[in-house]
Amino acid sequence: MRTTFPRLLQQHAARRPNAPAMREKEYGIWQTTTWLQMAERVAHIAGGLHQLGLQRGEHLIIVGANRPSLYATMLATQTLGAIPVALYQDAAAPECVFPINNAEVRFAVVEDQEQVDKMLEIREQCPQLAHILFDDPRGLRNYDEPGLAGLAEIEAAGAIFAREHPDFVQEEIVKCQPDDVAAMFFTSGTTGNPKGVVHTHFTLLNRAEVGARFDRLDSREEVLAYLPPAWIGQNIFSYSQWLACGYVVNCPESSSTVTIDLKEIGPTYYFAPPRVFEGLLTSVMIRMEDAGAIKHKMFHHFMKIAERVGPALMDGKRVGLLDRLSYGMGKLLVYGPLRNTLGLSRVRVAYTAGEAIGPDLFRFYRSIGINLKQLYGSTETAVFVCLQPDHEARADTVGVPCEGVEIKLSDSGEILVKSPGLLKEYYKNEKATREVLSDDGWYHTSDAGFIDASGHLKIIDRVKDVGRIQGGEHDGAMFAPKYVENKLKFFSHIKEVVAFGDGRDRVCVMINIDFDAVGNWAERRNLPYAGYTDLAQKPQVYELIRECVEKVNSDLSRDELLAGSQISRFLVLHKELDADDGELTRTNKVRRGFIGEKYAVLLDSLYAGKPEQYIETQVKFEDGRTGKVSATLRLMDAKTFASVKQAA
Amino acid sequence: MAHKKVGDVILDVKNISLRFGGVKALTDISFNVKEHEIRSIIGPNGAGKSSMLNCINGVYKPSEGSITFRGQTFSHMSSRQVAEMGVARTFQNLALFKGMSVIDNLMTGRNLHIRSNLLLQALRLGPAQREEEAHREKVEHIIDFLEIQAYRKTPVGQLPYGLQKRVDLGRALAMEPQVLLLDEPMAGMNVEEKQDMCRFILDVNDEFGTTIVLIEHDMGVVMDISDRVVVLDYGKKIGDGAPDEVRNNEDVIRAYLGTSH
Question: What pLDDT does residue A500 have?
C-alpha cells in the first residue's frame, strides 16, 4: 500500500468518524478525540499554518511531550507538504540551535512556557525563526515577542480559513506523494553535530505496516505514548503505526503520572527501552522486600515456579500437568495481580530495544506471562529490521529479519541492511550519507554481530568500539566494551558502566551505582549515608560491586572470544553520569570517549594501580547553574579467572 | 517580568501594635498592600513576621490599630469571617490532614463554597453530588496548575516536604482567595523546590490575579519575586519599598548583617 499520512487520516475519519483516535488525561479524566475531530483539528491547524506562510518542503520543529495537539500539528504540517521535525523536549537551548539552523526552520510549535523560553533564548542565533506557537498558554500571558502566538489562535483563524476555502485541504493532500519527505529525525550522535535523518511517507509507513502485520496489530490496540516524540521509535509506535492501523494512542497526564496512566489504560501493545522495564521491576522488588512475611513468601514461592514454567509456556513448549496447575495457581495469586500493578495486564505484544536487555530481566517478564520480545533497528532504518516471532524470544538475540529486509555481514563483521525503510539521506550531508549508504543500496549499521544457527541476529557491539587488548596476558584479545558494560548493568545495583581497554593491557571500568536500589540495600543494612557521593564510596558498597564484577569475570572467562575482556580494576564514580554534563547522550547512552577525557585523572590512576584518587568535578544543575562535587575515590582490584578453554 | 497591573490599595494596615503581656511583638506597624501585587514581609527570626500575618488573618487581635480590607475594617473579626472575605493562608509548619489524600485535603479548601447541607452530602443525593462534582472540577484545575497529578490519591503524610508545601498552597487556592497569605512558603526546601515554589507563586499572581502577601527570610528569593517589601526587626518596621530600595537601606543591612555596637 503506497499512501501518505494525511490520506490515512482522511480514510479513518471517513470510515470510522466516531471511533477514538487519541485520548489525553486532563483534569483527572481521559478526554477522547475521535478520528473525525482529529481530521477537523488537523484541517484547521493546516489552514492556520498556511495563512502564516508555511511552504511546501519547509521544515517546522515541534518541541514537547506527547500531546494530541502536537500530533495534530505534525499531521497538519504534512498536509501542507511541509516536514515536521520533533526535537527532544529536554534538550538544552543551545542543543536546539544546530537543528533549527541546519533545516532553516522558520516555524516552531512548542508545548509550553518552558519551551517558549528556550526558543526565545536562542532567537538571536536563529534569526530566521519567525513564528513560535505554543500549545499551553500558562505563564505566557505577559510575553510580548514578535511572532509568538497560541496554537489555539492559529487553529481558530484556520477554522475560518477552512470555511472560506472548503477544498483547500483536499487539494493539498492530493499534492502530497508517498515518496515525498515526511519527517526528519535528528540522531543524538555521540560525536559532532547531530545528523538529520530524512524519511519519506513510504519508508515510514512501509515499516509501520510490516511491523503491524508481523504482530497482527489492528484498530483495537491501545498504546500509551510516553517516550519523547523526537525519537523515531515513538514516531513509529504512536504515529506511523497509529495511522497505519488506526488504533488508539493515549497521552499521559504528565511525565510523572506515567505508571498510574499505564495502569488505567492497560495498553495491549507496549514498547519500552530496557531501562523502563528495569525500573518497573526494581520498584516491584523494593516493595516486595517491604511486604509482610506471608506475601513475601508467596511471591518468592510462585516466582520460582514462574521462572521454571513461564518461559516454556511462552515459547509454546509442552509443560507437565502438575506444573501447569501450579502455574495456574500462581497466576491467580501472584502473576495476575503483579501484571495488573505494573499496568501490563492486557499486553499482547511488548517490545524492548535500543539497548541489550539483561537475561534475568527478560526472563522475569516472560515468566509472568508478558509477551516481551526484542527488535533491532535504528533511526536510519525506520526501526524495523529484525523482530522476534512470538515463540522465539531470547535475551541474547534481536530476532529474525522481517519482511522486505536483507542482511549480510561485511568483512569486518559489520551488519549491512537492505530494506524499503532505509533513510532517503542525511539532510544536507552528502558525505555522511555516502558513508552509510553504498551505491548498491546497502546500509552500514556500524553494529558488529552475526546470524546464529537458528537464523536470529546477535549483536556484539558497535564496530568502531570493538577494540583489542594490547600487551599483558591477553595480548591481542578482542575487547567489546558495550558487551562488558551491559553484563554489569544487568545487576540491579549497577546503573551505568563505562569500560576501557582498547589499546591497553587490561580492562578497567567506572561504575555508577543505582541510587534507589543500593540506597534501599543500605537502609536494610542500617548503613547510614548522606547522598549519592557518600553512598558510592562506602566500603560495603564496594564489596557489593566487587562481587558483581567478579561474577561477570567468571562469566566472561567461559566465553572463548571475550575472555580477555575480564575486568581487572574498577571504581565507583562520585557523581551520577548525566546528559546535562555531556556524559550521556539524550537517549542515555554513555559517551565513552568524553568520559575518558573528563575523568582522565581517574583513568590514569586505575591503570597506575593507585588505591585512591582525589577528584573535583563541575556539575550543571537543572536550572543551568553550576556547582562542584569533589571526593576521594577508592580504586579496587577484582579477581580475574583463567580462560576456561586454556584451563581445560 | 513584564508589565502587570497593580491596582489600588486592597489591604491597609494602620498603626498595629501587638502585646503578649509585657512582650511587645509588634510596635506601631503601618503598611499597605495593593491589588495584584506580591508584597513581602521580611525580617530576621523573631522579628514579628508571623505575628503580623496572624493579625491580618484574624488569629491574633492587635492591641492597637486597625486593618482595613476593601474598605471594611476587621480588627475584630474571627478567622472564619476573614476567610469569607476572600483571604486565605498557608502555614509555616503545615497544617494539613496527614492521613487524608491530596484530593481530600484540597476539597477541604472548598468548604466555604459548599452550599448543600450535611444530610444531603452524607446521603450523596442529587444536588450534593452535582455540587461535589463542580468542586472537584475546581480542585482538578488546581492539581493541574500545581502539577501534582501523580499524587491525587496519595495520603499527604507520605509526600516529601516540598510537595506537602505545594498541597498546602493548593488548599489555600481552592478557596479562590483574593488575597493569599503565605507564611514562609520556601522554608526547609532545597534549591530546586524553592525555584518551583517561586514559579508557582508568580503563576498564581499572574494567572488568577491573586494579591499575595509573603513572609520569608530567604532574601534572595524575596527580592526576585516581590513588587514591594516591608522589613521588620524587633517588631518595628525598619524599611518599606521596592526590592532595590530596601536592599540598599542602611537599617536593613544592619539588621541582617549585624554591626559592631
Answer: 94
- Do A616 and A484 share a structural domain? yes
B187-227 pLDDT, tens digit per residue, is 888 888 888 899 899 989 988 889 999 998 777 788 889 99
Integer CA distances (angstroms), A294 to A17, A68, A263, A298, in order: 51, 45, 25, 6
Answer yes or no: do A139 and B147 touch at CB < 8 A.
no
CA distance A576 to chain B (A): 17
Both A498 and A451 in one domain: the answer is no
CB count in 10 Å sphere of residue A607: 16
Q: Are residues A590 and A519 in the same domain?
A: yes
The distance of B123 to chain A (nearest Cα, Å) reads 24
The predicted model scores a pTM of: 0.82
Query: Does the distance separating the beta carbons of A142 and B206 come in below 8 Å?
Result: yes
B2 interface with A at CB cutoff 8 Å: yes
Same domain? A604 vs A623: yes
Q: Region B31-51: what's the mean pLDDT?
A: 89
**Contact between B149 and A143 using a beta-carbon 8 Å cutoff:** no
pLDDT tens digits, one per residue of A418-446: 999 999 999 999 999 999 999 999 999 99
- Tell me which of A462, A481, A500 is where a domain ends: A462
A522/A444 same-domain check: no
pLDDT tens digit string along A222-273?
999 999 999 999 999 999 999 999 999 999 999 889 989 999 999 999 999 8
Please give the full DSSP string across A300-334, using - where no structure is assigned: HHHHHHHHHHHHHHHTT----HHHHHHHHHHIIII
Chain B residues lying within 8 Å of A29, measured CB to CB: 140
Helices (H) and strands (E) in chain A, counts: 24, 28
The CATH number for A286's domain is: 3.40.50.12780
Residue A511 lies in a domain: yes
Q: Where are the domains of chain B?
A: 1-86+178-261, 101-176
Cβ contact B149–A256 (<8 Å): yes
Helix, strand, coil shares of chain A, percent, nearest 5, are: 40, 20, 35
Q: Judged by CB atoms within 8 Å, which residues 192-211 of B form the interface with A?
A: 192, 195, 199, 202-203, 206-207
CA distance A140 to chain B (A): 9
Calculate mean pLDDT across residues A470-496.
86
Pairwise CB contact (< 8 Å): A142 & B144: no
A243 lies in a domain? no
Q: Which domain holds residue A486?
A: 467-647
User: Are A454 and A481 part of one and the same domain?
Assistant: no
Strands A131-134 and A148-150, sheet pairing: parallel
Average pLDDT over residues A400-417: 92
User: Hey, are the CB atoms on A141 and B144 less than 8 Å from each other?
Assistant: no
CATH architecture of the domain formed by B1-86+178-261:
3-Layer(aba) Sandwich (3.40)
Contacts of B140 in chain A (CB under 8 A): 27-29
When CB atoms are compared, the residue of A141, A256, A257 closest to B206 is A141
**In CATH, what number is assigned to the domain containing residue A518?**
3.30.300.30
| Inter-chain CB pairs, A–B, below 8 Å | 46
Read off the pLDDT band of A648 (50, 70, 90). very low
Q: How far is B37 from chain A (nearest CA, A)?
A: 15
Residue A498 and residue A585 in one domain: yes
Place A130 in a pLDDT band, splitting at 50, 70 and 90: very high
Determine contact: B132 vs chain A, CB below 8 A: no
Tell me the pLDDT band of B76, cut-offs 50, 70 and 90: low
Which of A410, A427, A462 is a domain's end point? A462
Residue ranges in chain B assigned as alpha helix (H): 49-57, 79-84, 102-108, 118-123, 126-146, 161-174, 191-208, 219-225, 243-247, 250-257
The residues facing A372 across adjacent strands are A350
The strand order across the sheet containing B179-183 reads B87-89, B179-183, B211-216, B38-42, B228-233, B236-241
pLDDT score of B257: 67
Q: Which of A25, A139, A623 sits opposite B203 (nearest CB)?
A: A139
Question: Does ipTM exceed 0.95?
Answer: no
Domain count, chain A: 3
Predicted pLDDT at A252: 95
Pair (A319, A422) in one structural domain: yes
- Cα torsion through A96, A102, A104, A110, rounded to 10: -20
> What average pLDDT is seen over chain A?
91
